[in-house]
């Protein structure tokens, strides 16, 4: 285990990133696991990678690559060995989701979370009563918006996520990985405007997020160096309404000519009004 972690740490300490995830190698590795103890040890290895390497990475691209890699391995364990090899005290799939900040990866991985919730156990209590923790992860990743103390929203948001049509978790995670590589090669053309971070009531003036135009000619929202493509869904004389591509909840951003920005839900109710950064 220590040798494995040392090698992985060395790989992610370099400037080189893998061009693809070795899925078939992982598939063979996981298929060869024989008996409950070997599978248990594999879960412990994934947990160690998360706690000792992933959470300490400060480079966004490296962290996102490793977190998707971790999700793929977890998905393969479920695919090959089934839910009977997942115990209710296993937190690995839940931390896979919460330590990933790529929206498309979280949506691809959601069927794994649903399978864990059917079994119950740690998922029912981690970070509060289910589904608070996992919904908070998705909401913060897509919109940087906290659902704290908004339990009334949970049933509708869970319904939206349950309608996401992930037919092949591993393949969609691979696609998400490749999309992140493509995004990393884009150049910034223009910062349209920037606002202070605000996921709940308090404004965080130490951090900002922006709407930007990139070298592919498309508009993105940039949160902490992570870019999500926006679709223009309505253009008026005094505002434009944008929606994150493939976002799950039907929420949108209204960007006005005076530079103000609002996050609204699917019914047009304002969830957050942002403050323009100085």
From TrEMBL:
It comes from the Bacteria. This is Uncharacterized protein. It comes from Nonlabens ponticola.
């Amino acid at each position: 285990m220590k040798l494995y972690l040392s090698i992985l740490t060395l790989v992610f300490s370099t400037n080189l990133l893998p061009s693809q995830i070795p899925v078939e190698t992982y598939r063979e590795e996981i298929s060869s696991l024989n008996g409950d103890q070997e599978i248990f040890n594999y879960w412990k290895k994934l947990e160690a990678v998360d706690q000792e390497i992933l959470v300490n990475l400060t480079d966004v691209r490296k962290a996102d690559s490793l977190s998707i890699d971790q999700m793929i391995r977890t998905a393969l364990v479920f695919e090959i060995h089934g839910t009977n090899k997942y115990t209710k005290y296993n937190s690995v799939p839940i931390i896979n989701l919460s330590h990933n900040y790529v929206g498309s990866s979280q949506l691809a991985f959601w069927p794994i979370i649903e399978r864990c919730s059917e079994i119950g156990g740690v998922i029912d209590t981690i970070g509060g009563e289910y589904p608070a923790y996992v919904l908070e992860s998705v909401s913060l990743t897509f919109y940087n918006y906290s659902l704290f103390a908004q339990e009334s929203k949970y049933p509708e948001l869970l319904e939206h996520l349950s309608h996401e049509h992930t037919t092949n978790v591993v393949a969609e995670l691979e696609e998400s990985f490749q999309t992140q590589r493509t995004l990393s090669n884009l150049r910034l053309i223009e910062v349209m405007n920037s606002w202070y971070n605000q996921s709940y009531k308090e404004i965080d003036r130490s951090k900002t997020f922006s709407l930007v135009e990139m070298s592919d000619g498309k508009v993105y929202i940039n949160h902490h160096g992570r870019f999500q493509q926006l679709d223009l869904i309505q253009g008026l004389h005094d505002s434009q309404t944008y929606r994150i591509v493939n976002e799950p909840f039907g929420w949108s951003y209204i960007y006005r000519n005076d530079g103000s920005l609002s996050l609204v839900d699917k019914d047009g109710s304002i969830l957050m009004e942002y403050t323009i950064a100085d």
